[in-house]
Write a structure and sequence with these properties.
The complex is a heterotrimer of chains A (about 450), B (about 180) and C (about 475).
Chain A: H1 8-31, H2 37-66, H3 76-83, H4 86-102, H5 125-130, H6 136-167, H7 173-200, H8 213-238, H9 247-278, H10 281-293, H11 295-313, H12 322-362, H13 367-377, H14 398-419, H15 432-436
Chain B: E1 7-13, H1 16-28, E2 35-37, H2 45-49, H3 56-82, H4 95-121, E3 142-147, H5 153-165, E4 170-175
Antiparallel strand pairs in B: 1-3, 1-4, 2-3
Helix pairs in contact in B: 3-4
Chain C: H1 19-31, H2 36-62, H3 77-88, H4 90-101, H5 107-131, H6 159-192, H7 195-204, H8 212-245, H9 257-283, H10 292-322, H11 326-337, H12 341-353, H13 361-364, H14 367-394, H15 409-432, H16 438-443, H17 445-448, H18 460-466
Helix pairs in contact in C: 2-15, 3-5, 3-9, 3-14, 4-5, 4-8, 4-9, 5-6, 5-15, 6-7, 6-8, 8-9, 9-10, 9-14, 10-11, 11-12, 12-14
The chains are: A mainly alpha (about 450), B alpha+beta (about 180), C mainly alpha (about 475).
């Protein structure tokens, strides 16, 4: 079976989860602090995570095609389906970027009014220096502009791939054209994704910087994307599709999952070790907060995303067992979602608490905000001081999990819907025969 | 096989495809193959010959783990027990700083271990002079060998017949 | 053995070779007397080597004062050359290990020579940290042994010591990997040789006969060594980058250094492989085995890694501004516009701008352009290390300590000497061992020979596809 049929039952299950996600987000809004920080961090977290998965799917698709990989041809439609989710990401990022203009949220310290104005109470010398990059216009342009370019490529590549199905010729003219487009996409993606990550994630800890950060976050997306690919392949196989995908292909996908988990660990360690070793206060603060205030997530991140995949996926046989692969993929998808949680939440919380504190002292009648901010911020001036972290920040709470499931359902709904629009196997790909007879 | 004299009857094939077919045929005829020698690794041969998968990777894991423990344990002992020194304000037991050397020794132990194991179990060593059936086996001939010690001339002619049926380009006898 | 091959794949072995012809072509050069080009090159290499040895002896006799180092510029050409050579030494293991794992068949044409190059380059690299100690005879102090200094150990927390472990491990594993690949080929040489050569190659080939079980284990060993060499090759240049990045010197302390050094190493390593192989294929007549398709594949890797390095340069530049840390900002401003602006300019031109020419297929497939580019990149990558080391140290925190460093004849002589060492070893290697892996090339003949695939295939794709089924 090459034509995927999206059954009503599948649709209703996914829609059910999406409703659950919406409910959770609504509930988050209701129980939130006056700035709705928990709601906005959840929105940003999931948007960045799932948009990133869509982006990296297209990036990997392009890289493998350029490298004549060939073997992955039987699963390439899955990458195509994933990549189109960037449209949704575009809309969501538009909302978040709009939020910086209309003060919906206080996710970013640099977005505060008068941050670059020496006469303002909010003036911050460092952030004023950065303000020609960290400003609302750039943020909006970067988020929307880059995503629009990526989305354009995603749609272009997808439509040409489908055209190859319908009108593929013996000289593989479609494939040659596709190869040119993906080659153009690769450097554009490499440069713009770094800038996007700086804006979306790194600038949450607005004073802090690390040159490694963009590559680190990209590696995290990559693993999440591979996990989701493996889960989707196994799901589709369970429904009788993708008979062409054999243990050999899963073995190779499993190898990638293993290899990039090691690579992620390498980047994690390099970034951490260099900052730990040099011991420059401005840099160590990032890890100090996470290690001291979020120890479970900090060490859990390493256990889930390094120790377990290393020990479990090292053996060849485990990369061929559906059960183990599903287990590892679920774990790693969640693990890297947690990784992004840890990148986003502590910094955003800090910014929000400071803003609340500030508002509380500046505007006398905002007593509620004042009390709230004061109580929560505690001794926020001293880094690493122990203060109560509100629910939804220290650990992903039920509302966060619900929101995650809602986003995941929307991602899958969108992708599965794309699968219905074309054959699951691209039948005129020049490497199809190789892929069908793939042996590891 | 170097200990005792072996009488060997072997056929040389010109192509690995012919060799694979011959091995299949030999299995079908229930002939006991002594060995198959080729100029390069021929894929698909192992299952036909009933060769079990190599367990070298398990040995590699053990050697590697040994290296990990040696390196990490040693540095821990030196810097917490034997002669603790503070470097750059770091704790005695500076785990992140131990990781690079631990990693290197893991790889080193593993690499040396599996290489030595490989040569040992294969019986390969510098100075060892092998019994070569034919000089062209390392060039372009694919060799299928049967042991004919104590076999009747009838059985031997059956083997010769087998070689001619499966398209061996040459058939030779050799005592090694 | 052979699965279907896409029609888009270009053949990697030209000239309708038979297995025997492959043996003749690849083993042949070791059996003939060297030609005059080889002899001239060898004399030249040995001359350079001798001059290098003289300069090393001079350094040891006179002391490190014979170099232009001073209080702030503690590292000059020595460590620049060290990093440069180590970087070059990365391509061999990369081609053998990572490309083996990625199943890139074109690696078989160049892996043997690239691995040899790795070993020789690491030897050249290893020289520099030893010489720059000044008192070479105290080099044993870097090893952790219970010693006469009391039970005082080396500093396991020091990146410089990590380097000792990394480089020596890398050297050992590279030798094991290389030699394991050579054993079957030495057996091929042995079985063609007569007299004393037969005895020598008999010893070198360890008694290899090509048994099915041995091949199976040999493949397993190769894959395992490739598997562990892959993180190893990453770790080596990572640790070299730690030498710089663990410090608090602006311009050195940046977290992107590890992956960026690794990408740069691959970049320069491929360039050096191309420089060498373009010469070797001409002199040894290996055009059928190291084809334009191989060259194009390597040029693609160069384009890729060149762009990764470019992203890293720009990231560094941008983040130094973004950090709003004055010293960091100055370090990069100084690199681009300070007294050593020419080396920054050379680095950017050679490493980032010039490889962009490889977007054009015509240039990727041009031997001449490739050769020129490979030299460019070798120079550019040397400049990169010089930029990192000299520029940064010449403009320290204290303006009163600012100075300008330029190498003395001794430093230049040692650098030239390492070229001598490198080429002497490489030239000897081409005489004693097959420069292209014989058994591995044979194993891909059915899927990559031009009589089976490509536009001039006689046997046709379908036949090649079903040959072994």
């Amino acid at each position: 079976m090459h034509q995927f049929i999206f059954t009503g039952r599948q649709k209703s299950v996914l829609l059910g989860f999406m409703v659950l996600g919406l409910l959770c987000m609504g509930l988050t809004w209701a129980v939130d602090d006056p700035f709705h920080t928990r709601f906005w961090t959840n929105l940003l977290h999931n948007t960045v995570f799932f948009t990133g998965i869509a982006f990296i799917a297209l990036f990997v698709y392009s890289a493998w095609m350029t490298a004549y990989a060939g073997w992955h041809t039987v699963v390439k439609r899955i990458f195509e389906g994933f990549s189109l989710y960037m449209v949704v990401g575009l809309v969501l990022m538009l909302i978040i970027a709009g939020g910086t203009w209309f003060h919906y949220h206080h996710l970013y310290h640099w977005a505060a009014e008068g941050i670059a104005d020496p006469t303002s109470d909010h003036y911050d010398r460092i952030l004023a220096g950065k303000s020609s990059f960290l400003n609302k216009s750039w943020y909006t342009f970067g988020s929307v502009g880059f995503l629009a370019v990526w989305t354009f490529f995603a749609f272009r590549i997808r439509s040409m791939s489908i055209a190859e199905d319908n009108a593929g010729t013996a000289d593989y003219a479609h494939h040659q054209k596709l190869k040119r487009i993906v080659a153009i996409f690769l450097p554009i993606a490499a440069f713009t994704s770094a800038a996007a990550i700086w804006q979306w994630v790194m600038s949450i800890d607005a004073h802090w910087y690390s040159t490694m950060f963009a590559w680190y976050a990209t590696a995290s997306w990559f693993i999440a994307m591979m996990s989701l690919t493996i889960l989707t392949v196994i799901f589709l196989k369970g429904k009788g599709y993708l008979e062409e995908v054999t243990g050999e292909h899963l073995h190779d996908l499993g190898k990638w999952l293993f290899a990039i988990s090691i690579f992620w660990t390498y980047l994690w360690f390099s970034q951490f070790m260099l900052i730990w070793y040099a011991n420059v206060g401005e840099e160590t603060v990032y890890f100090q907060i996470r290690r001291d205030d979020y120890p479970v997530l900090f060490y859990g991140n390493l256990i889930i995303n390094f120790v377990l995949p290393f020990l479990i996926l090292m053996r060849n046989s485990t990369k061929r067992k559906y059960g183990t692969l599903v287990f590892m993929s679920v774990l790693l998808l969640f693990g890297h979602w947690v990784d992004f949680f840890l990148m986003i939440k502590p910094g955003a919380l800090h910014t929000a608490l400071e803003a609340m504190e500030h508002m509380g002292t500046a505007v006398g009648d905002a007593a509620a905000a004042h009390d709230h901010g004061h109580a929560l911020a505690g001794d926020h001036g001293g880094h690493g001081a122990h203060h109560a972290i509100p629910p939804g920040f220290k650990m992903p709470g039920l509302l966060e999990i619900g929101t995650f499931l809602g986003f995941l359902a929307s991602f899958l709904y969108f992708s599965l819907n794309q699968f219905t629009k074309a054959s699951l196997i691209s039948k005129n790909d020049p490497y199809l025969a190789e892929s069908l007879h793939h042996h590891t | 096989m170097a200990d005792k004299h072996s009488e060997v009857l072997f056929g040389l094939y010109d192509d690995e495809v012919d060799l694979l077919d011959a091995v299949k045929q030999a299995n079908a005829d229930h002939l006991e193959i002594m060995d198959v020698l080729t100029p390069f690794p021929v894929h698909g041969l192992d299952p036909l010959l009933g060769l079990e998968e190599s367990r070298l990777h398990i040995a590699g894991f053990i050697y590697g783990a040994l290296g990990t423990m040696t390196a990490f344990g040693f540095m821990t002992w030196v810097f917490t027990r034997d002669w603790p020194i503070i470097f750059g304000g770091k704790p005695y037991w500076s785990v992140p700083a131990f990781i690079p050397i631990t990693f290197e020794l893991t790889v080193l132990f593993c690499a040396i271990g599996i290489t030595v194991t490989f040569y040992t179990i294969c019986g390969l060593a510098p100075g060892k002079t092998p019994d070569i059936l034919d000089d062209r086996i390392t060039d372009d001939k694919f060799c299928l060998a049967f042991k004919t010690n104590g076999q009747s001339s009838e059985q031997i002619s059956k083997l010769k017949n087998f070689f001619s049926r499966t398209g061996a380009s040459e058939v030779h006898n050799k005592v090694i | 053995m052979s699965a279907p091959v896409s029609k888009l794949r270009e053949p990697l072995i030209m000239g309708s070779k038979t297995y025997h012809q492959i043996t003749e072509d690849l083993v042949g050069p070791t059996e003939k007397a060297p030609n005059s080009a080889w002899i001239i090159a060898f004399i030249l290499a040995v001359t350079f080597l001798s001059f290098g040895l003289f300069c090393i002896a001079w350094t040891i006799y006179v002391g490190i004062g014979s170099w232009d180092l001073n209080r702030t510029i503690g590292w000059g050409w020595d460590i620049t050359n060290f990093v440069w050579w180590v970087g070059i030494g990365h391509a061999g293991t990369l081609i053998s290990a990572i490309l083996l794992l990625f199943r890139q068949k074109w690696r078989t044409g160049v892996n043997r020579a690239a691995e040899a190059m790795t070993i020789f380059a690491v030897m050249c690299a290893g020289l520099f940290p030893l010489i720059h100690m000044g008192r070479l005879w105290l080099a044993i102090f870097i090893f952790p042994y219970p010693n006469t200094r009391g039970p005082l150990w080396v500093n396991f927390n020091s990146p410089l010591l990590w380097d000792v472990f990394a480089i020596s491990t890398y050297f050992t594993v590279s030798v094991l990997f290389w030699y394991t690949g050579l054993v079957p080929d030495f057996a091929t040489v042995r079985d063609r040789a007569k007299g004393i050569r037969k005895n020598i190659y008999n010893a070198l080939s360890f008694g290899w006969t090509g048994k099915a079980k041995h091949w199976q284990r040999w493949e397993s060993l190769s894959l395992l060594l490739a598997g562990i060499a892959t993180p190893l090759v990453l770790s080596v240049h990572t640790i070299v980058s730690f030498d710089f990045a663990t410090s608090i010197i602006p311009g050195w302390h940046t977290t992107i250094f590890p992956p960026y050094f690794v990408a740069g190493a691959i970049f320069s390593g491929f360039a050096m492989v191309l420089t060498l192989m373009l010469i070797a294929r001409k002199i040894l007549g290996l055009e059928d085995y190291i084809t334009v398709n191989h060259i194009e594949s390597m040029n693609k890797v160069i384009l890729l890694t060149g762009n990764i390095v470019g992203v890293a340069y720009l990231t560094e530049l941008f983040i130094s501004w973004y950090s709003q840390y004055t010293y960091e900002q100055f370090a990069f401003f100084n690199r681009a516009t300070g007294v050593y602006w020419w080396s920054y300019f050379g680095m950017m031109t050679c490493n980032v701008l010039s490889p962009q020419i490889f977007w054009v297929k015509k240039y990727r497939r041009s031997v001449f352009v490739t050769f020129i580019m490979s030299i460019f990149i070798n120079i550019g990558m040397w400049f990169e290390r010089f930029v990192i080391i000299a520029t940064t140290l010449a403009r320290d925190y204290l303006p009163s300590s600012w100075s300008y460093y330029k190498p003395t004849w001794v430093e230049i002589g040692i650098y030239l000497g390492t070229f001598g060492l490198f080429f002497t070893c490489f030239l000897l290697f081409t005489r004693v061992a097959p420069v292209v892996a014989v058994a591995e090339v044979k194993s891909i003949l059915k899927t990559s020979g031009d009589q089976y695939i490509g536009p001039d295939a006689k046997h046709g794709h379908e036949k090649a596809g079903t040959a072994a089924h």
